[in-house]
From TrEMBL:
GO terms for molecular function: dephospho-CoA kinase activity. Residues 398-437 are annotated as: Disordered. This is Pantetheine-phosphate adenylyltransferase family protein-like protein. Gene3D superfamilies: HUPs (3.40.50.620). GO terms for biological process: coenzyme A biosynthetic process. It comes from Eremomyces bilateralis CBS 781.70.
Length: 437
């Protein structure tokens, strides 16, 4: 008998995105599927986790290509899909900003995560351009299927591409665990007549690789905008070349409690520790594909992680370092990645205390911050960081189908913006609390 719904942990296997991946073409391709699955897994009494596997053909065979070359094309696809998820959730009345802590009972909503899959549009011989390991933000379909995650339901999408992805995944997964397979309707996948778009391959020798990326923020009540920012920061950590021995890390500067005291609805601000745990859980959820149970399924760090708590005097002296230890393969160097979750008390954080970090990911709203960081680094005699932006997810294009209200009757634009603002999330929590008095 199939497991009862809603499922606690599910994965939706999307077909590859349309080309070019405009918001409207993504909407035509994925909206029906997203709405169906969000509606099915949503529950008012417990939080469900929904992994959404997004196959990106231009990543297949590109493990040796510098991530800075692949960044813009990947960012456009992830930002467009996350924006569409916000729209679909608003129309279906699904809370996609649950505070995930403990076992999630009594909270409701769906914790959504996009997983980046290096997979060709059509199957064929394995590309000889290298492969992605079990630790990192890009994963191959076979590695994803063989990972230690405990999905209760695997969702496939009707259509040739969707069926191909589902069949290949299930073939590799079936021997590991029991799960139900469900199919949902798909949309129209359009590919430009010139063929599958590829990531640029020219001038690769001029682009440096990065092994230490950094981002900063408050990360209060982690939402879709945060997830986009964190995903692209983790994306910028390149794969190691054969026999290369270099530390790989993702540093996240998380604003300390003192700097947030004057925020609106300050009484509902999460503590630094709560925000740190939420960031850690999300990153592990999109980076841990080892054949053991990933830490994102547990309330505390398991024994297969190396965890170090640092508490030293001075700037950025308080941090948690969490290392994902990659399995060792003869053809692939050990690709461990350390998540460095640092408490910061100023706008610069580790960017001006750690000379080894080489790439900073910011939102377009904080563009001036990147220039200020590099000015400080020059004063120290350090190399400039490469500064990359993620899109600001705005409400443009969300009303073009004539739907001006969400499932609860709220203005669609206001509903959209409310899901991308920590202040609005705290406001909603405050209103909900007062209504229960």
């Amino acid at each position: 008998m199939a497991p009862a719904f809603p499922a606690r942990d599910s994965i939706l296997l999307l077909p590859p995105p349309p080309q070019p991946p405009s918001f409207q073409s993504l909407r035509a391709t994925y909206e029906t599927s997203l709405k169906s699955v969000l509606r099915s897994v949503n529950s008012p009494s417990r939080t469900s986790t929904l992994d959404i596997a997004l196959p990106l053909p231009f990543l297949y065979g590109a493990s040796r290509t510098p991530r800075s070359v692949l960044y813009r094309q990947t960012q456009d696809a992830v930002a467009g899909l996350y924006k569409l998820i916000v729209v679909a959730a608003a129309q279906e009345g699904v809370d996609i900003n649950p505070d995930v802590d403990g076992d999630g009972e009594g909270q409701g909503g769906v914790d959504v995560r996009i997983l980046l899959v290096a997979e060709p549009r059509r199957t064929g011989p394995r590309d000889q351009g290298g492969w992605f390991g079990e630790v990192g933000v890009v994963v191959e379909l076979e590695t994803l299927a063989r990972s230690g995650r405990r999905w209760e339901v695997v969702w496939g999408v009707d259509g040739e591409d969707g069926e191909t992805i589902l069949r290949r995944f299930v073939e590799k997964r079936r021997e590991l665990s029991r799960f139900a397979v469900r199919r949902v309707g798909g949309g129209i996948v359009q590919v430009a007549s010139t063929g599958e778009a590829e990531a640029p391959r020219v001038g690769l020798g001029e682009r440096r690789k990065h092994y230490a990326s950094v981002v900063g923020g408050t990360f209060d009540h982690i939402h879709i905008g945060h997830k986009l920012l964190l995903t692209m920061t983790a994306f910028m950590v390149d794969e190691l070349d054969t026999d290369q021995q270099t530390e790989r890390s993702v540093t996240i500067g998380i604003t300390n409690d003192a700097l947030l005291a004057n925020k609106k609805y300050a009484e509902l601000l999460q503590s630094w520790d709560a925000r740190r745990v939420a960031v850690e859980r999300f990153l592990i959820g999109i980076m841990d594909y080892r054949p053991t149970s990933p830490a994102s399924l547990l309330s505390e760090s398991p024994s297969d992680l190396h965890v170090q708590h640092i508490n030293q005097p001075g700037p950025n002296g308080h941090a948690w370092n969490v290392t994902l230890v990659a399995p060792t393969h003869a053809a692939q160097p050990a690709g461990d990645i350390t998540l460095k979750l640092v408490e910061i008390g100023d706008p610069f954080g580790p960017t001006i205390t750690e000379p080894g970090v080489s790439v900073l990911v910011i939102s377009a709203e904080t563009r001036s911050g990147g220039a200020a960081v590099n000015q400080k680094r020059r004063e120290k005699g350090w190399a400039d960081m490469e500064v990359l932006e993620v899109d600001v997810l705005d409400s443009g294009e969300v009303e073009d189908d004539g739907r001006h209200k969400d499932a609860s009757g709220r203005d669609m634009r206001a509903s959209f913006e409310g899901k991308l603002s920590s202040t609005e999330i705290r406001k909603e929590r405050a209103t909900r609390g007062r209504s229960k008095v």
